[in-house]
Amino acid sequence: MTTTGRIGIAEVERFENAVDVLRALDYRQGGAFSHDAVRVVRSVSLLLDWGAIPGGLRSRLLTMLADLHNLLGWTEFDIGRRVAARLRFDRALGLAAAAGNDGLMANICYRLGRLALHHDDVEGGLNHLRHGQAAAHRSGSLRAQAILTINEAWALAKAGDERAALGSLARAECQFEHADDWATARPWEAFFGTTDMAAMRGTVLTELAGTVASRYSEEAIARLRDAVDGYGAEMSRSLALTLIMLAQNHALQGDFDEAVHTGTRAMDLARGLGSTRTKDRLAPLAALLREHADDPASRDLLARIDSYRAEPAP
User: Fold this and answer.
1) What is the band of 7 on the pLDDT scale with cuts at 50, 70, 90?
2) pTM of this prediction?
3) What ranges do the domains of the chain cover?
């Protein structure tokens, strides 16, 4: 804070940079590694309560605090704390509304949708995603619109609504065609580019392979391989989740040699992450391996998965 007791742009930028560092840590190592963010929340909340903030900076500081609660909600989700995650997201949504930031509101709704979908609440997930779509349209962010549309496709695929899922997937692909014209990404949505779009295409098709017809697994494999090739070490959690789905599709096609090879790679990566989502997302692969447990390699990987999933949460 400045010597006059007023908050200046330097203080706000310092906190924004701290959030960026925490976000990068979350992408790379998972939610269990990002609890230092709580201290930043307390500091910023005190500034908002007691600091003398110029009018032009108050909205920016509110946005930053909303973004931080959004990140904390994601980390709580990642380590299996559903109620705590929902509380953080709700707080983030209120702050983003106070800041008048529709783009951030859209992103928070996307994350609320993902939380619901992870727990198989498809109706709740679709409700959040559609509220997010409205906010994305108000914001004019084409990136936000694409994120929400592709996740809507995933939700519809989980419900087994083939026609609607493919329709949303086609709309998302159309929106993504204009990615070169997108404005510079805000920090909370910067993850979404060519690689994550490929991963989400593969995710939708993987879901359809399980709920509608296994024929979707062939294209899912191609899209997931594209994503695997695109993810670097800075996105280790996304890479692990993508490898899990890739192994699942190989198992659906009856190629258990490749399923075991890819699943082993996913397991090696997942063990270094502070994430329970990887454990949850291994359940379909484990079920497929269990049906093929007469094969020694499949049986060995299944034992590793069962042991990993039985470990206490981080």
Assistant:
1) low
2) 0.90
3) 101-192
